[in-house]
Amino acid sequence: MSFSRRGLPVICVAALFAILTSWAACACSAQSAPSPVTATAATTNPAQPASSQAYSLPPGKLAQAITLSRISLALEVIGSLWSLAFLWILLASRWAAHLATWSERLLSRRWMQGLLFFAAFFVISTLASLPLDVAGHLVSRHYGISVLGWAGWLGDHAKGLGITLLLGPPLLLFFNWIVRVSPRRYWLWIWLVSLPLIVLSAFAEPLIEPIFNQYEPLAKNHPVLVARLEQVVARTGTKIAPNRMFLMKASIKSNGLNAYVTGIGATKRFVLWDTATDRLPDDEILFIFGHENGHYVLNHIPKELAGMAAGLFFVFWASAAFAGALARRFGTRWQLDEATPLSSRPGFLVLVFAFSLAGVILQPAGNTFSRHFEHEADIYGQEAIHGLVTDPQKTVVSAFNHLGEAWLEDPNPSPFVEFWSYSHPSVQHRAGFAAHYDPWAGGGQGRFFEK
Ligand SMILES: [Zn+2]
């Protein structure tokens, strides 16, 4: 639940959910997202079209933003297709089968063979995606968004791989074992097991993040800002104590602006990037904080987890059926075990392929769900600063312009691209909505606040 569409490449729970992450964002809701501009049409002026000027860039930056958005989209599409092609090649070339034979020759115990097989799989996958990751970082540095040197970048990747190797192989081995002991209903058991794991990963995320980034209490160097944020806390009743507010030293890695809420229960916290405290007026940070408060008050994290759980039930069922069909069709050619093809080590990768495919197909559903929450949080944030800043509309529009410029967001993305790959409404939609949102004008009241 971040404020911006992009974040630092934190691979925090990649390990625990090496498989899950590929479709973790699916969350599959049938709910269709209201258009960010017209969702609360009652409070906007229907005669006024979505403002095309609410978010704008100077000409030089506009050209850069358009090119960057095209390159990012191309990298994203290629990345998705490559992750599927890679798994297919691994199976069709029988490398997966050879890898299993190799691990069996090297080690005697079955569980150790499994650990070695899955560890090798993670290393090969990481190497296979490295060229695209490098390209992404090159582009980000070229456009001045990332300021992270190659040594630091490699260090982050190495840490990510380390965590993956620590948690990923045991998890896949466990799932693989479930397929073996319950060849018919395994998808249901894996789904049940993944439920506590999803909650655990949400809880553990803030504990893993410090491996990649430095944090300090926000009050340490920004006591005046914290005092103002407490005014928002008082208005929203969120009970986010100052010791749950953190400053992340993002500026050593990025020029982007961001803030996010993370964790649940005892690990719940608000994190603000130092790029934001350095470059944004306090009023705008108040809005961003209000937005993040909205995620809490409106229970977006539990709702997202519940949506994910419901979606995964369907995804596991469908993936199992599809993987079964693939195994029947290609099992002999891919040298899978004949009796129970999916429970063999290479056979398990057929399941991984089916899960990954579901992830790609369901990406727009997850993003639609997410954009809906983000829009709600935007409304909440703008209402939360009513009375605390002089002009909420102006403050919010300015915040979105700063955000868009920092990330070089395309002011006019294609609606299809926004639908498919944006986890947040486009900056243009967000700023356009904010510019016309004033529920109190004419004696009305807000959606979340009476006054
Ligand atoms: Zn958000």
Could you explain how this protein is built, in words?
The chain is mainly α. It is built from 15 helices and four strands. The protein has helices at 20-24, 59-92, 95-106, 110-142, 150-181, 186-208, 218-221, 223-236, 274-279, 282-297, 300-330, 345-384, 392-407, 415-421, 427-436; strands at 215-217, 245-248, 259-262, 269-273. It has a four-stranded mixed beta sheet with strand order 1-2-4-3. The protein is elongated. Zinc ion (ZN) is lined by residues 1-3, 291, 295, 374, 377.
Structural class: mainly alpha
Q: Output the radius of gyration.
A: 23 Å
Output the number of helix runs: 15
Q: Low-confidence runs (pLDDT<50, min 5 residues)?
A: 7-51
SS elements, strand count: 4
- Terminal Cα separation, in Å? 26 Å
How much strand content do the residues show? under 5%
In helices, the fraction of residues equals 55-70%
Small molecules in complex: zinc ion
The mean pLDDT is 89
Main β-sheet, spatial strand arrangement: 1-2-4-3
Describe the structure using short key phrases.
451 residues; mainly alpha; 4 strands; four-stranded mixed β-sheet; binds zinc ion; 4% strand; 15 helices; single chain; 63% helix
Note the topology.
Elements: H1 20-24, H2 59-92, H3 95-106, H4 110-142, H5 150-181, H6 186-208, E1 215-217, H7 218-221, H8 223-236, E2 245-248, E3 259-262, E4 269-273, H9 274-279, H10 282-297, H11 300-330, H12 345-384, H13 392-407, H14 415-421, H15 427-436
Parallel strand pairs: 2-4
Antiparallel strand pairs: 1-2, 3-4
Zinc ion binds next to helix 10 and helix 12.
